[in-house]
């Protein structure tokens, strides 16, 4: 049973640790090859013989671990015979291409990918499709032409607006703010940032808030920490930082928590409750948001199964069963929305364990 957002443990059933997976990618290839070499999976008709491969933005990211835990549970529950995780250790634009190519060679039936760049992965995904694989984008979309469906954690505009509301509240409605993002090409980050900028520019409630900088920590802890430090030096009047990435918000919180800015400069964005708990308790952070990352992986696996079985094509109006999470419908542009975001603060953060 994979519950809706409520207290629980992250799941990691049957999955190698991220670091181990990077080193044993060849094992993944063997498993995938087995699944299709016998021909049983080619027409998608034989449950248990199909292989699914998850390619996250990067492996060494705690958020990714939770997403993939849900993905492995989903792959199991949906009836895949083999399920693997492969991927790069850093989230640069083209770092996923060699992994896509290797999985295509191995004959995987479903590729689930969080794109580091909407276009850089497209030629390789095209070859995977030509070889018969179904493509599920999740977390961060590809160019829509390059995948069958996109599993989106939330409605992009909603999650952008929540972050603007939170920072506005926390700085008392006026002053300079900055955004500390992940990589500059990430589809999800850029979509959220665009909605945030539009809201700040058009909503009269935010007329006194000025976005003075956008910086990129590349979902690398050390770089994000440095970027946070750099923002404080470059903008002495800064009142708040929005970091819509779990890596960025955690690194920024760590920087602020031991600096003179703790409690003075607000920080919000998207974070994992387990990483952010100490900073909420020590007063560095008042409130931030996120969805249930495990559900994202879980729904993506079921979408992959429905595609591989030929039950859906990814067209608007298609529906598929997503195990414990019930039926899901494909919306406009081939997008499936998983669930609403939750806001975490001192009152509720101890109720969550991921
Ligand atoms: C980071 C990644 C990911 C994003 C979360 C919120 O871990 O950038 O893509 O969805 O944060």
Mean pLDDT rating: 89
In angstroms, what is the radius of gyration?
20 Å
Bound molecules: alpha-L-rhamnopyranose
Structural class: alpha/beta
- How many β-strands, per DSSP? 14
Number of continuous helical runs: 11
Shape: elongated
For the report, how would you describe the main beta sheet?
Answer: 6 strands, parallel
Share in β-strands: 15-25%
Cα separation of the termini? 16 Å
**pLDDT < 50 stretches:** 1-46
Record the strand order, biggest sheet. 2-1-3-4-5-13
Helix content: 25-40%
- What's the helix-strand series? HHEHEHEHEEHEHEHEHEHEHEEEE
What does this structure look like?
The protein has 354 residues and is α/β, with parallel strands linked by helices. The protein is 39% helix and 18% strand. The chain is built from 11 helices and 14 strands. The chain has helices at 18-23, 25-37, 62-78, 97-106, 122-130, 156-170, 187-202, 221-234, 246-257, 273-281, 293-308; strands at 51-55, 82-85, 110-113, 134-138, 149-152, 175-181, 209-216, 238-243, 266-269, 287-290, 319-321, 327-329, 335-337, 342-345. The strands form 4 sheets. The chain has a 6-stranded parallel beta sheet with strand order 2-1-3-4-5-13, with helices on both faces. A 4-stranded parallel beta sheet has the order 7-6-8-9, sandwiched between helices. Helix 9 links the parallel strand 8 (238-243) and strand 9. The longest helix has 17 residues, at 62-78. It is elongated and about 55 Å long. Bound molecules: alpha-L-rhamnopyranose.
